[in-house]
Design a protein that fits this description.
Blueprint (H helix, E strand, L loop, with lengths): L11 E12 L31 E5 L2 H7 L3 E3 L7 E3 L5 E15 L3 H6 L4 H4 L5 H4 L14 H12 L5 E5 L7 E6 L11 E2 L37 E3 L1
Parallel strand pairs: 5-6
Antiparallel strand pairs: 1-5, 2-7, 2-9, 3-4, 5-8, 6-7, 6-9
Length: about 230
């Protein structure tokens, strides 16, 4: 992967309904992202010592949201292969998003522009923080390639409000990632189970110190037969 090439990615508008599964105790803070500034995740290298950007993960449908939240285990492609978590009590929220510009890394032609592919986008990232001298496999360590990608996309592209990528939990579906620092969250109000919320509008005053990435288009047919996605904002 070459995360330094993110400025060459095509940026396009995106709107639609995405899903998030949360513990029923935390409904009131279901779309809160303040904690994400200090917690490492697939596309963020944040830590308490080195806080990063805020990021919100959403799933293409309610089933994928449950897999991502580890309320379901196994494979939806295997008959009888899905097993529910024995104690999890989660609620699926529908969230309508209207974004000015995103990039779609699930499109192979776009992934190629940053020298990556589906295998790398869905691969190991936790091990980069867990390996060390006390483990039998000592490396690689540090920032995972996907974390470097999320970092560079945020740092170099002020107009990009989120991106799509494949889900490791279900490789035929997408996740969305939203950079919530660049969004006006005042109208974000999720409702329970399949009821859409008000759109998340762009905040044009945010992140104006960074340079814009390329604005272009890509062939929707380039997705091939991949029917579902994950979005990050």
């Amino acid at each position: 992967m070459n995360a330094g090439k993110v400025t060459g990615l095509a940026a396009v508008p995106h709107s639609g309904t995405w899903y998030r599964a949360v513990n029923s105790r935390f409904i009131s803070t279901a779309v809160s992202t303040a904690h994400s500034k200090t917690i490492a995740s697939q596309f963020s290298p944040a830590s308490p010592a080195n806080p990063g950007f805020e990021i919100l993960y959403l799933a293409e449908n309610h089933l994928l949201a449950m897999f991502e939240a580890q309320a379901l285990f196994g494979s939806p492609l295997t008959p009888g292969g899905v097993v529910p978590h024995p104690t999890a009590s989660l609620v699926t929220l529908a969230i309508q998003v209207q974004l000015s510009l995103i990039v779609d890394l699930s499109v192979p032609a776009q992934a190629t522009l940053v020298d990556t592919n589906a295998q790398e986008l869905t691969g190991d990232w936790r091990g980069y923080q867990q390996r060390g001298s006390a483990t039998s496999v000592a490396g690689p360590t540090g920032k995972a390639p996907t974390q470097e990608l999320g970092d560079q996309l945020f740092a170099l592209c002020p107009t990009i409000q989120g991106f799509l990528s494949l889900s490791a939990a279900s490789l035929l579906q997408d996740l969305g990632y939203l950079y919530t620092t660049s969004l006006d969250r005042s109208r974000l109000r999720p409702l329970q189970h399949h009821r859409p919320v008000r759109p998340i509008p762009a905040n044009s005053d945010s992140l104006d110190t960074r340079q814009p990435c390329g604005i272009g288009h890509f062939d929707e047919n380039a997705r091939g037969q991949i029917p579902q996605k994950r979005i990050s904002i």
